[in-house]
Design brief:
This protein is of the alpha+beta class and 133 residues long. It is 39% helix and 19% strand. It is built from three helices and four strands, in the order H-E-E-E-E-H-H. Strands 1, 2, 3 and 4 form a four-stranded antiparallel β-sheet that branches. A hairpin with a 2-residue loop joins strand 3 (62-70) and strand 4 (73-81). The protein is elongated, with a radius of gyration of 20 Å. Residues 25-45 have low confidence and may be disordered.
Length: 133
C-alpha cells in the first residue's frame, strides 16, 4: 500500500501533458503557399535556371519545391508550398541542406516529418527530371 499512492500520483502527473496535448489539424490551402519561402543557400547567378516541381498532395497538405540550378549544380531550393505543421517547419531547412549536399533527391527522411519528407522528395525529383539533371 505504501507504493500505491506514489505510483498513482506519478501516473496522474505523467498523463496531464497527454490530456493537454492538442495536435494541429491545419494544413495549407492548396492554392496558396503555406509559409514564407525559406531563404536560398546562395544567391542565384544571372546564368541560373529555375525549375518548379509539381505540388504533391500529402495527408498533411501540399508540398512543392522550386530548384535553382547554376550549370549542372543545384544552387538553391525554395519551398513554394508546405503543410502548416511544426514538424514540417523544422524539417524544411534540414531537407534543403541535405539536397544541396547530395546534389540529388537521394536524401534521408527527417524523423518526425516523414510525410512531408516524402512529398518534398517527390516534388524535388520531378523538378530534377524536368530539368534533365
Amino acid at each position: 500500500m505504501k507504493r500505491a499512492l506514489p505510483v498513482l500520483v506519478l501516473t496522474v502527473a505523467g498523463l496531464v501533458p497527454v490530456w493537454r496535448y492538442a495536435p494541429s489539424h491545419e494544413s495549407a490551402p492548396t492554392g496558396e503557399a503555406a509559409a514564407a519561402p525559406v531563404p536560398a543557400a546562395s544567391a542565384p547567378a544571372a546564368s541560373s535556371d529555375v525549375v518548379a516541381g509539381p505540388a504533391v498532395a500529402t495527408e498533411k497538405g501540399d508540398v512543392q519545391v522550386e530548384v535553382t540550378f547554376e550549370g549542372e549544380r543545384i544552387a538553391a531550393v525554395r519551398i513554394l508550398r508546405q503543410p502548416n505543421h511544426p514538424q514540417t517547419t523544422n524539417a524544411v531547412p534540414v531537407l534543403i541542406e541535405e539536397t544541396l549536399r547530395a546534389q540529388s533527391a537521394d536524401i534521408d527522411t527527417v524523423s518526425g516529418a516523414t510525410i512531408t519528407s516524402e512529398g518534398y522528395r517527390k516534388s524535388l525529383q520531378a523538378a530534377l527530371d524536368a530539368r534533365g539533371a
